[in-house]
Amino acid sequence: MVISPSFYPLFAALLANVTAQVLKLFIFYFRSNRWDLHQVISCGGFPSSHSSTVVALATAIGLQEGFDSALFAITCIFALIVIYDAVNVRYYAGKNIQLTKQLISDIEEMQKVNFSDPIYHEKIKDVLGHKFVEAIGGIILGLLVAFLMAPLMAV
Fold first, then answer.
1. Three-class SS of residue 112?
2. Reported confidence tier of residue 115, pLDDT bands at 50, 70, 90
3. What is d(CA 86, CA 151) in angstroms, rounded to the nearest whole number?
4. Cβ neighbours around 88 below 10 Å, total
5. Sign of the C-alpha dihedral, residues 9, 140, 127, 85?
6. What is the largest CA-CA distance in the chain?
7. 113 pLDDT above the threshold of 90
8. What is the pLDDT of residue 1?
9. Which member of 14, 75, 98, 105 has the greatest number of CB atoms within 10 A?
10. Distances from the Cα of 91 to the Cαs of 43, 75, 94, 129, in angstroms?
11. Residue 24: which residues within 8 A CB-CB, separation 6 or more?
């Protein structure tokens, strides 16, 4: 079966995403000395799979269509928006959730109040976004994947 080079951007993006997610498992192990398979599907962490995916896509498009093409320009803008969102909007949404959880806990403890409404005890993921260094790791990974795959896809 011969894979069409036109699928190169898609495969580069998907491989960068999967690689980032799998790397999170090993990086988590080296930091905590324990395995947590949930890291493979988790949001946040190093490297950013969002950043690696969109950078691999934009780079592959640039290599295939030319870095002076309109399609490359579109994917670059798309990548910048996704990375900005991961580092700013989603990161601070996660911080907001952490703060809200802490406030609820503090009020319950200080006022000896038990919030019985289930909404106060709902499990909410508080790591949604990325620190800047995690995004940089994803950007580097995306570039590596796209450049390493290019010769294999005969671009």
1. coil
2. confident
3. 30
4. 14
5. negative
6. 68
7. no
8. 47
9. 75
10. 10, 22, 5, 4
11. 39, 40, 42, 45, 46, 47, 49
